[in-house]
Amino acid sequence: MTELLTSAQMRTIEQAAIASGKVTGLELMERAGQGVVEAVFEEWPELAQSSHKAVVLCGPGNNGGDGFVIARLLRQRGWAVEVFLYGDPAKLPPDAKVNYERWGAGGGHVHRDWETIYKAEQALRLHMLGASITVDALFGTGLTRPLGTLHNELWHAFDLDTGPIHRLVSVDLPSGLCGDSGRLLGMEKFAVQSEAKGVAPSALAATLTVTFHCRKVGHVLAQGPIMCGKVVTKDIGLSSGPKLPSVVTILPKGCVFDVQAPFSGCIAKGTGHKYTHGHALILSGLSGKTGAARLAARAALRVGAGLVTLGTPHEAVTEVSAQITAIMLTEIDAPEILTRVLSDKRLNALCIGPGFGVERAGEFLPHVLAAKRATVLDADALAALAESETGFADLHENCVLTPHAGEFKRLFPDIAAKLAEPPTKGPAYSKVDATREAAKRAGCTVLFKGPDTVIASPNGRCSINAAVYERAAPWLATAGSGDVLAGLITGLMARGFAPHHAAETAAWLHVEAARSFGPGLIAEDLPEELPKVFRALGA
Ligand SMILES: NC(=O)C1=CN([C@@H]2O[C@H](COP(=O)(O)OP(=O)(O)OC[C@H]3O[C@@H](n4cnc5c(N)ncnc54)[C@H](OP(=O)(O)O)[C@@H]3O)[C@@H](O)[C@H]2O)[C@@H](O)CC1
Ligand SMILES: [K+]
């Protein structure tokens, strides 16, 4: 697991490092600028071979300060650099001001015709023609409000005459993107236009984003990936370790983790007989609807549960039994029978929802929850939960809810409405905030699906399994893929994984299996691909 930082956490870390006396803000800014230049040459080695032209757009804060460092370093390599400053040089923060002055002292000119936006637009167009890179150092973690007219003009300057910029390098965060939520502030108008044109929802959608120390939450959530292009993280000497031992301990509460590969030791099966690895019960729907539960059962078995049983209604027994081998079957026609079946304490994890039927789920739910087993509530069980009179009262800490956006809205309408509101100031309400609030209210782990799957638990623990950038898995958008995920979580909980850990691990494996299989994937392929993923992990 690596941490994903909020803007406030990043500021705290920087301030602690500066306060420790081991580094100055100016040194950090120099390393940040160097990091960007390095990343540019790593990304486009041909640019390191000779001198080129760059346009650097600097803002009124320290992000702009990084821009002045980049401009100076490129000029030292013989590049022609045009710098635009949005803001008053007299009001720049101290470190940015020093770098503004260094740029000037070296003979660098600063265009400041932003006040007359029309002129700036013309100037930009003129200078961008022939530039090999454009650097966006307007705003980073200090963005507090929408870009407003500045963005309108950039939109015209970038898009209309010169066409989209093919190498737009963003410093820390694309300007306008909230670092905590991955949402663009005040861009609804452009979102509509860009959707119609099939382009990114902002003029400042980057080709390459270079961030410092750690990725920020906003890089992986919501519009973050489409805005950042590719994210490269550069170390600026803030890493924990002997150099700055205090840094880790001051990290504020509310950390968000990036789900990483599970340790092979945790996923590998230890010694023992089948019951040592748990017994999962997956409740099946009526005939014609049993496929979803069979997919979940197969996934639970492949992920290592010792035994898996499908609780099947009598009328579907022929359909189910014709299609299973290692998976067992027991007849469960009514909620009372389920309660009887669950008197066998070896059945230690349950899954209800896939293909189950909303009405039936409503009847079974009280019995399922009264059993207090590790339980995954998915699909129809979530719809039934949203309609139930008791609401979340019967949920317990060993439950995992796995809503997609539509199900989340039904379960938590007010939270979903808050998340849907167009953001007007930073930091904006995020999917992390929404999932944390939902988990607290439900009193159990919530896995809110999407390319940016967020997993939160009532104790505040939160993780993001981002299937974006190099981990994009568009083939997962296929019928039955959610059933497999529910089965994976159930199987891992049967093996004794705690709910949050099971949800994280399952979400990670789900994406890896899809990526390993690749194009043409259908849900049946996911469980069958797991052995390959495990072998690659060394499990
Ligand atoms: N700290 C460090 O040691 C290091 C920091 N580093 C770099 O610094 C960046 C963070 O710097 P930062 O905190 O100065 O914030 P930044 O994003 O430059 O903007 C703040 C300014 O913009 C203004 N403003 C905001 N929104 C606006 C809008 N829509 N339209 C107009 N104005 C707006 C805001 O005004 P205010 O809200 O205060 O009125 C304020 O004046 C970080 O991303 C990284 O690149 C690296 O060098 C490593 C070392
Ligand atoms: K930026």
From TrEMBL:
Q: Catalyzes what?
A: (6S)-NADPHX + ADP = AMP + phosphate + NADPH + H(+); (6R)-NADPHX = (6S)-NADPHX; (6R)-NADHX = (6S)-NADHX; (6S)-NADHX + ADP = AMP + phosphate + NADH + H(+)
List UniProt keywords, sorted A-Z.
ATP-binding, Isomerase, Kinase, Lyase, Metal-binding, Multifunctional enzyme, NAD, NADP, Nucleotide-binding, Potassium, Transferase
Cofactor(s) the record lists: K(+); Mg(2+)
Q: Which PROSITE patterns match?
A: YJEF_C_2, YJEF_C_3, YJEF_N
Highest taxon of the lineage = Bacteria
Instruction: Kindly list the positions annotated as binding K(+).
Output: 63, 136, 175
Question: Which GO MF term does the entry hold, naming one?
Answer: ADP-dependent NAD(P)H-hydrate dehydratase activity
**The EC number(s) this enzyme carries:** 4.2.1.136, 5.1.99.6
Describe cofactor binding as the record notes it: Binds 1 potassium ion per subunit.
Query: Domain YjeF N-terminal, which positions?
Result: 10-244
Q: Where would one find the signal peptide in this protein?
A: none
User: What biological process terms from GO does the record include?
Assistant: metabolite repair; nicotinamide nucleotide metabolic process
Q: Which CDD domains match?
A: YXKO-related (cd01171)
Occurrences of domain YjeF C-terminal (ranges)? 257-537
Which residues make up the binding site for AMP?
449-453, 482
Residues annotated to bind (6S)-NADPHX: 62-66, 140-146, 172, 292, 355, 404, 483
SUPFAM superfamilies reported for this sequence: Ribokinase-like, YjeF N-terminal domain-like
What does the function comment of this entry state?
Catalyzes the epimerization of the S- and R-forms of NAD(P)HX, a damaged form of NAD(P)H that is a result of enzymatic or heat-dependent hydration. This is a prerequisite for the S-specific NAD(P)H-hydrate dehydratase to allow the repair of both epimers of NAD(P)HX.
Q: Which family does it belong to?
A: In the N-terminal section; belongs to the NnrE/AIBP family. Belongs to the NnrD/CARKD family.
- Subunit record text: Homotetramer.
Q: Which NCBIfam families match?
A: yjeF_cterm, yjeF_nterm
Name the record gives this protein: Bifunctional NAD(P)H-hydrate repair enzyme
